[in-house]
Design brief:
Oligomer: single chain
Structural class: mainly alpha
Helix content: over 70%
Strand content: under 5%
Number of helices: 19
Number of strands: 0
Largest sheet: none
Radius of gyration: 20 Å
Length: 398
């Protein structure tokens, strides 16, 4: 098996463990766990994820990406083991989700950098896209399988986590002897890796990546964590919730080859297409809530998933050009901004007493529409000042 595929399998499993909890929210809510506890457990993931995204950068430099990735797999498996044993105990669910966030934070950045190194010699942006596909497939496969198992298999609070433990064991075996990918001279002769300030110093990051990155998971979580609760699926609701998550994230995977072809002409077009998809997706979400029709969730999930996939590829491809050949600072910072989108469920919950979700989605669509000319204007300003290559954001296809 190719080295990059071994590492991608590890990222797939970590992504699976990160999102398998989504359809199980309905299981816990239907049981003895209160709504507030379920919300707390869901949010604990972000509290473990965001700090570790940044801590993973110095850890990977000190101990190596292979060691960091193996540790992430071990923590991901431990999180599922804890959740499996947690049942209806609040503190166990919170700790399990917190560890799932830690595993994701430790694995995403180093894993992306490792896949990039093992993709050396291919077209620029290939490594970033491979990493994005692996994560997206894990994000989508986890909730889809967990939803089906929780709906029709006994012990819905146990079996989905047991499946992830099995996958984690297999991925650990695959990645254990994967080639490092970094040349031996990189640590001795390489220049000092860029700090966080170096990433923020690029106007392209500040005015194009940072404003749009939260929509990566903002659109995805709106689709699979918000809409199934607002527009319940008739019949097997748990499996339906998992199917919505799977469809959303599968759409994100499917659109990425198209995103690459667009990038070979003009990498700005990926971002604009993703923003247009977000506008359409939020308008469809408003229609689904207004009509109360679960059938509208199908096109909504596809369009919001397309936004997720395009903006993921766009962001990772752009920050890839900011990094030293074997660094991962830009990817870590991008993921931090992207995971801001996980506040979407809380935003809807917080304001629905004053603004109906349908009206909120229309307003969000309007804000996203404004981002299209704003980010385009920022790109034009930069091109007048200096070439894309000088700015650190050359065309992805080069």
């Amino acid at each position: 098996m190719a080295g990059w595929l071994r590492v991608a399998s590890a990222m797939f499993v970590v992504g699976w463990g990160a999102n398998q909890f989504s359809p199980l929210l309905l299981v816990y809510r239907q049981g003895e766990v209160s709504e507030s506890v379920v919300t707390l457990a869901f949010g604990a993931y972000a509290f473990g994820l965001v700090p570790m995204l940044l801590l993973a950068v110095p850890l990977a430099r000190r101990f190596g990406r292979a060691t960091t990735m193996r540790a992430a797999l071990a923590v991901s498996g431990a999180a599922s083991l804890i959740l499996l044993a947690g049942g209806d105990r609040t503190w166990v669910l919170v700790i399990g989700r917190l560890l799932a966030g830690v595993a994701s934070g430790a694995g995403f950045g180093p894993g992306t950098a490792w896949v990039k190194d093992l993709s050396a010699g291919r077209a620029s942006g290939t490594g970033a896209r491979r990493a994005a596909v692996a994560l997206s497939a894990g994000f989508g496969g986890g909730p889809l399988v967990a939803g089906v198992l929780a709906e029709w298999v006994p012990a819905p609070e146990v079996i989905p986590y047991a499946v992830h433990l099995f996958l984690a064991a297999g991925a650990t075996w695959l990645v254990w002897n994967a080639p490092d990918g970094a040349p031996p001279t990189s640590r001795r002769e390489g220049s000092e890796p860029p700090r966080l300030g170096t990433v923020f110093a690029h106007k392209g990051f500040r005015y194009q990546v940072a404003p749009t990155a939260p929509l990566v998971f903002g659109t995805a979580t709106t689709s699979f964590a918000v809409l199934p609760a607002l527009v319940p699926v008739h019949g097997p609701s748990i499996a339906g919730s998992g199917a919505v998550a799977g469809l959303t994230l599968a759409s994100g995977v499917a659109v990425q080859p198209l995103a690459r072809r667009i990038a070979t002409r003009n990498h700005h077009v990926i971002r604009h297409c993703g923003l247009l998809a977000a506008v359409g997706g939020f308008l469809l979400a408003a229609a689904a809530v207004r009509l109360g029709d679960p059938a509208v969730l199908v096109p909504t999930s596809i369009v919001l998933g397309a936004c997720y996939g395009m903006l993921m590829v766009s962001g990772l491809s752009q920050v890839e050009t900011l990094e030293a050949p074997h660094d991962l600072t830009g990817a870590a910072v991008f993921y931090c901004f992207a995971y801001v989108g996980f506040v979407a469920p809380y935003l809807v919950t917080a304001v629905k007493g004053w603004v109906s979700p349908a009206v909120l989605f229309v307003c969000v669509a309007g804000v996203v529409a404004v981002l299209i000319p704003v980010t385009a204007l920022a790109g034009n300003t930069r091109r007048r000042d200096r070439s894309p290559e000088q700015a650190g954001f050359g065309p992805v296809g080069e």
